[in-house]
Amino acid sequence: MIEHLYNPDRMLEECRRVLKPGGLLIISTPNLQAWYNRILFLVGVQPIFYEVSTKSTMIGAGVLRRIKRQTVPVGHVRVFNHRGLTDLLENEGFDVLASSGATFQSLPKAVQVIDSAFNVRPKLASVIVVTACKN
After folding, report:
1. 3-state DSSP call for residue 121?
2. Which long-range contacts (CB under 8 A, 24 or more apart) does 68-75 make?
3. pLDDT below 70 — which residues of the chain?
4. Which of 4, 47, 97, 114 has the most crowded Cβ, counting Cβ within 10 A?
């Protein structure tokens, strides 16, 4: 849910305040640089998860208009790639212990198979999952 916050820094400050030393924080967020978003950028299509309109996901969808089912924007306020998320965590006093990827479950089943192959490379995965420790 960090991607829905206007002030993720404040949320992380509060997480750091309430965690005991050595306490773990696990954060997951959609990846702006997911493998398919990189392809979409090349063909001039707005990346998945990142809408420019508050009314419709069809704005900027290009060729995806034909396959999009969900047209209501999800309301992501902040966008993250792997580096941005890990830098933010470190800036707020966390040590990043591990990163992994996760499959986005709303993708078509055939695409999920491809998507799951990218989970070993968090920088390319649909979803970034980071485990951090309060230092």
Report:
1. coil
2. 70/106, 74/49, 75/4
3. 67-69
4. 47
